[in-house]
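ping. complex inputs:
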Amino acid sequence: EAQVTQNPRYLITVTGKKLTVTCSQNMNHEYMSWYRQDPGLGLRQIYYSMNVEVTDKGDVPEGYKVSRKEKRNFPLILESPSPNQTSLYFCATRTSGVTDTQYFGPGTRLTVL
Amino acid sequence: AQSVTQLDSQVPVFEEAPVELRCNYSSSVSVYLFWYVQYPNQGLQLLLKYLSGSTLVKGINGFEAEFNKSQTSFHLRKPSVHISDTAEYFCAVSDGRRGSARQLTFGSGTQLTVLP
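pong. complex structure:
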């Protein structure tokens, strides 16, 4: 079954404590990305990756890091989380072809106190 | 750069009534257009997409949308809604040019609530 998995699904942490949200896909997709969803703002892209070792900033990259060392994984790293990073985070994947369908993970709800 | 405006943040409608969710976009280049649905506590699921060809696009669950280039709109419609259609709906646009990274830009979402 085609899947995008995220872990953890829920996380409560404190300001400044480094955390990583993992994203893994089994569809062999080249393209992966991270979004955050906030009420009234829709989804905004944080970072994306066109392939292994190729990453680029999205619209709201400040305070986040990513890495793409292997095709299936695309972790999101918050080195020093702050309360304004409290949000719902989604990982998504897509092939490089023209079908353009993005497949979304189930989401990670992060609360930074 | 592209932008998307969803004109209604909340749309309440009675069961079996028709519904239209409005979406307008802005872009200086050709675009691809999408509608995604998000059920409570779930990720986003593609409803339908316009890449090229016929401007009337049919999607899953009886939804359809029409691409209107002159009005830069991509409104979503369903002739008869069910309680199970209650969800948040997102319109999205990407750069349609060959070779572009085709990043998705989302609207702010429309909460559709179907009332019994």
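Chain B touches chain A at residues 4, 6, 9, 32, 34, 36, 41-46, 49, 51, 90, 94, 101-109 (CB under 8 Å).
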